[in-house]
């Protein structure tokens, strides 16, 4: 195309055109090419579509910011217009939640901060995006970068807005009420769409999604949002973002402040040791696995907080994750219920059928395990699940991620940091094997608010992924705790 760009494969298609992965053979780099066919039903519609496309390219090309997709070139070939853009190596937020399950509040807040940074640049240049939704939010790598893309229906605020006669442009369940009603729009309209998008990150769907388009539009205009169950500390800010009156919504500066409270909670007084029960921390060390958070999937490194109920006594932990290590924490529990998922007897795959141990159930992270009945289940991400005993004296954790590097190296680094913990004492940290796979075991004791705890951690690599099966327990329940842990490890099955 244009004697320069070689189209490799189609990677997406929407109402405004098809997107290709392509090679720029002059600069020897991969790019994304958006193809828009200019074939309206009449000459006026064709002119409108061409003007819309060129406006999109000009508006986006004016912005040079890591949270906004970069536009490199525009090629005009008569019936076709091609916009050449940066190829973002990642998944859309829509795909992340579909593949890995909904995000937790901390991860969602991190996504929100990326969108705020993007809109600060976009709105400062007089541009409205007008179609912010999970499909137009890209998560690059392990979540280090959030990219707002597809300015297909953007319009300059200082110019007459373009319309598509007889066509609803945009996604109704992410449209601000004033846009649906045909009232004047402005930056608050994009901010409303950020709120709907963050709700979708937490729940997997818009808070206004209904069975039909008309029902969805009615919900946007007249109904209160159905906030996700795991909204946690984001409840207040999401309620404000989705206010029907644009003047009641927070501006970008206020939104950034609110999101940071959840994304980066203030550390608490004591130091976390490796992966211990929910504790209070200051300068916590990195976690154990050697890969980024698979949700959010590949996801940003973050500090998170969870609650551990223990016979009326609660302990709180904040967890920091470095750029190459996997998080193990969570925001205030997304789901708390003494419910064991329905057992799955076998796992059907293209290569083999695997029989699960009796009572084992599948998790979204690509593994199955048998967990104790009556324990509180707390899903942190699609790949990480916690179970807490009814009396709070033991906790179990399982999680998975992509394997990177040598497992023992990351664990040894975490162990060095762990020495800052209160009464930390290493009992064992060594390489071993688990079912023929390279593995690491780490056993240690520590004190939390005057109460002793014992930790036993197992990590292993298999088929290019890293898995962990961990437990923490009070020493006075060690005999029963070790029985539970042994049963859980014996049942752990990689799918």
CATH architecture classification of the largest domain: 3-Layer(aba) Sandwich
Rg, alpha carbons: 25 Å
Q: How many helices in DSSP terms?
A: 10
What is the CATH topology descriptor of the largest domain? Answer: Protein Transport Mog1p, Chain A
Gross geometry: globular
Give the amount of beta strand, in percent.
25-35%
Give the N-to-C terminal Cα separation. Answer: 43 Å
By CATH reckoning, the class of the largest domain would read Alpha Beta
Q: Roughly how much helix do the residues carry, as a percent range?
A: 10-25%
Largest sheet: 7 strands, antiparallel
The CATH superfamily name of the largest domain is Mog1/PsbP, alpha/beta/alpha sandwich
Low-confidence stretches: 155-167, 268-298, 300-353
The quaternary state of the protein chains shown equals single chain
Structural classification: alpha+beta
Rounded mean pLDDT is 77
The number of distinct structural domains comes to 3
Number of strands: 26
Strand order of the largest sheet: 19-20-21-25-24-23-22
Features:
single chain, alpha+beta, Phosphorylase Kinase, domain 1, Protein Transport Mog1p, Chain A, seven-stranded antiparallel sheet, five-stranded antiparallel sheet, 31% strand
Quick structural gist:
It contains 10 helices and 26 strands. With 495 residues, the chain is α+β, with helices and mostly antiparallel strands.
Explain this structure.
The chain has 495 residues and is α+β, with helices and mostly antiparallel strands. It folds into three domains: 5-86, Phosphorylase Kinase, domain 1; 90-158 and 170-263, Transferase(Phosphotransferase) domain 1 (Transferase(Phosphotransferase), domain 1), CATH 1.10.510.10; 293-494, Protein Transport Mog1p, Chain A (3-Layer(aba) Sandwich), CATH 3.40.1000.10. 25% of the residues lie in helices and 31% in strands. It has helices at residues 43-61, 93-100, 105-124, 177-180, 187-203, 213-222, 235-241, 252-263, 407-418, 478-491; strands spanning 5-14, 17-24, 29-37, 71-77, 80-86, 90-92, 127-128, 137-140, 145-148, 155-156, 293-294, 298-299, 304-310, 313-319, 346-348, 353-355, 361-363, 367-369, 376-381, 384-388, 394-402, 425-434, 437-448, 451-462, 465-473, 493-494. The strands form eight sheets. The chain has a seven-stranded antiparallel sheet, sandwiched between helices. β20 (384-388) and β21 form a beta hairpin. α5 (187-203) packs across α7. The protein is globular. Residues 155-167, 268-298 and 300-353 have low confidence and may be disordered. Residues 332-350 have a biased composition (Low complexity). This is non-specific serine/threonine protein kinase. It is an enzyme of class 2 (transferase). Residues 5-264 form the Protein kinase domain. Its EC number is 2.7.11.1.
